[in-house]
Amino acid sequence: MGGLAAAVAAQGDGARVVLAEKAPTCGGAFALAGGYVWTVPTLDLYQTIVPQGDAALGRMLVDDFEEAVDWLREQGARFGPRREGLFAHGVGRGYRLEPDPVSAGIAPLIAAFERAGGRLSCEAPARQLLLDEETGRVVGARLGGPRGPRTVRCGAVVLATGGFQGDVELLTRYVSPWADRLFLRASSTSTGDGLRMALAAGAAGSRGLQAFYGHLLPAPPARIDPATFRTVALYYSPESVALNLHGERFFDESMADELTTQALARQPEARGFLVFDEACYREHVLRPHLPDGPVHDPLVVIPAAGGVVLRADSLADLAAALSAHGVPPRVAQATLESYDAAIAAGAPERLTVPRRKRLHRLHRPPFYAIPVQPAITFTHGGVRVDTACRALDRDGRPVPGLYVAGVDAGGIFYEGYVGGLAASLVTGLRAGIHAARVA
Questions:
Q1: Is the pTM of the predicted complex or chain greater than 0.85?
Q2: Are residues 18 and 157 in the same domain?
Q3: How far apart are CA 212 and CA 190, in angstroms?
Q4: Does residue 182 lie within any of the structural domains?
């Protein structure tokens, strides 16, 4: 989304554009997304959900959103009706690309780009930025690929390589010592190329390099692939009780699934369990994740994917079943029973890890536990940018000729999240337009 939007927008401002794509086909994480282009309607809501985010970038996202969606429509993108109450605590609003992101979003943008004379080169990963020796200005890039190395010289470069969630070394450095246990719920080509090239050219990293967006998926032996990303994702973790391998709660899981996912990524072996009772299963787990989405029964889809669902008629028996997965049964039983007692007494603040909302008891058998592992969709940290999407150095000065779009642009999200496609669209438009004017 970020690279395509930047390329088409730059052409609209009169630039000649080469779009270099690392993968054999264009699309990246955009092609794997659920298709909702959404965000929150006000800066106050943005700051409530992403309190550590860059307020100026948050205002850019909120203010530019509707105009950016209109621009996408002008390029031929096809949307369903506007929807309210999406994601992010039920306060998001936006539109779904219909019938899917590839045919309704990616294909129209590629067609618009090529109609205007743009050159799309697939299997052409950028390896290095070219700098003017005297001024330090970015004046092009060296590309690799099966056709051999080549050099593209230009007036400005926009980086939109999709983050570093596909690179275990960077994830281990910034995100978690257990990064090699994370499922990759995204394109495998996003390996931090943009961040590395920007840092080598003098740009600074943003805040929030340890944060990411993702969801919980069934732990091995479950078989996870792009076809099952949304089918088996445990979006209902805020309604459940989350335990680590020690049998302890480690986070207020009622806050948001993406926040519990980040917290679990730093627990031992990045492995945990979601626990719920029959009442929660009936009333919350079997609800659709989206207003127009299907229901995926975990008792059916997780075993079908090779995953495990534990079931027991008492919390003591469930704790005993967890012992086969390395969890101390007495600790797990004590954790679950004390949790239920606190909720029954209306005193969740007395828990070792207090729970703020979704105060569901664990009292109606049968009880369920699902072994889970974090999955990462995209990283929140990246290159430090301003609202013109210019890359900034460590002193806050622009790196001449270098712009950043999509999730390579760090600072919009920081643990909290309010719409990845929307942020990539808005940053892509700004980066493309400003880069074209400079070029």
A1: yes
A2: yes
A3: 13
A4: no
